[in-house]
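Sample entry (90 residues):
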Amino acid sequence: MAVALDSALELHPQVAVRPEPFGALAYHYGNRRLIFLKHPDVVSVVNNLAAHDCVQSTLDACGVAPERWPSFVTALSSLESSEIVRERAR
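Predicted structure, serialized as tokens:
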């Protein structure tokens, strides 16, 4: 499923994010997937999803320029299919 700017997401509770010089590693203890988050901005967004109403407000709060939002939506869609992030109830 594709993530939209008005989607409410959160880091999956079975995922641990470990900071690295390049960004972070995200490990899902349930499905044993290891994902490389290759940019500090992506790490910031993923870590702050639950603190905001939707993806758009998270991107705003993390200082991501609007012209970069489509690439973040694509990245979050991929992370959702890998079960690193998930939809949350509002």
